[in-house]
Amino acid sequence: MKQEVKIPQATTKRLPLYYRFLKNFATEGKKRISSQELSDAMKIDSATIRRDFSYFGALGKKGYGYDVQYLLEFFRQTLDQDEVMNVALIGVGNLGNGLLKYNFQKNHNTRIVVAFDSKAPMEGTTISDIPVFHPDRLEEMYKEFGAELAILTVSSRSAQMMTDRLVKINAKGILNFTPVRLSVPDTIKVMNIDLSVELQALTYLVRNSGK
């Protein structure tokens, strides 16, 4: 992503959503949309959308709204949708298995190309057409398959140890599904997804709605 202004992480996380909904609008034949139309579709406050867009300059015109094709092309380039990035999955338990079956290549600019699991044989096996190796071969196979990002779905006790190994082989980013807050240098980007926290937050919202 090329910009001088530092984009907040909350905004960064919404960029793929904007791209997805803009593709829907384009498929429906929409030529232009307002921030309110996008707000109604995405259930995001229109002021938030306008603020997010403002980080990237003048993407629309007052009284006209936004040109759908222009925005679609802008976000496609911003998200590097034409360049696929290879991903390594570390930990093939229930969650890891689900990620392998889904994989991201069909709908996104990322794809899982290799996985690692402590139950896998040293010579490797295949799950959902993805080669899976024992973690002892992480450094070797991570580089051989050209992985740049890692998805971490291991146990909490193994999370930092595996992260330290990823740091040494210059992983660019980690999508962390463990509850551990990883210690990494500034050169590595980490996004944390704690399903238990998200579920607790949802439970709170449900129980307190309408109060």
From TrEMBL:
Primary gene name: rex
Protein task: Modulates transcription in response to changes in cellular NADH/NAD(+) redox state.
InterPro entries in UniProt: CoA-bd, NAD(P)-bd_dom_sf, Rex_bacilli-type, Rex_DNA-bd_C_dom, Tscrpt_rep_Rex, WH-like_DNA-bd_sf, WH_DNA-bd_sf
Keyword Transmembrane: no
GO cellular component, one term: cytoplasm
Known partners and oligomeric status: Homodimer.
Positions of NAD(+) binding: 91-96
Keyword tags: Cytoplasm, DNA-binding, NAD, Repressor, Transcription, Transcription regulation
Keyword rRNA processing: no
Domain CoA-binding: 80-181
Alphabetized GO MF terms: DNA binding; DNA-binding transcription factor activity
Family: Belongs to the transcriptional regulatory Rex family.
Name by which UniProt lists this protein: Redox-sensing transcriptional repressor Rex
Lineage: Bacteria, Bacillati, Bacillota, Bacilli, Bacillales
DNA-binding region extent: 17-56
One Pfam family here: CoA_binding
Intracellular or extracellular location(s): Cytoplasm
One GO biological process term: response to redox state
